[in-house]
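Data card: per-record layout.
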Amino acid sequence: QVQLVESGGGLVQAGGSLRLSCVASGSIFRFSDMGWYRHVPGKQRELVAAISSRGSIDYDDSVKGRFTISRDNAKNTLYLQMNSLKPEDTALYYCNLRFSASRSYEYWGQGTQVTVSS
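The structure for this 118-residue chain is written out next.
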């Protein structure tokens, strides 16, 4: 069982920055594909950014040029640096881990709230 613990959310003014962190328990982090998702009530959860176990990175078009995803395998930690925040970035942000061996595993964190005021 893997536990994911997010932190770093909060209230920030438009144009500001936040850095989210997600710490994973266990020993499979370095072998896992990781992602940040966000959810707004009434809407579907959407993928914001993803980084594979090999370091390949992908972003949703809405955050390209503003958000940066990174990982530190030595610390079992995933990051999301969010700059030039907009009110539409307001959401509950979740960390996601996917690992495949003889079967596939997927884990979610509890989420951290990001609120951007205009």
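Known properties of this structure: The chain has a mean pLDDT of 97. The CA atoms of residues 2 and 26 lie 6 Å apart.

See the next section for split statistics.
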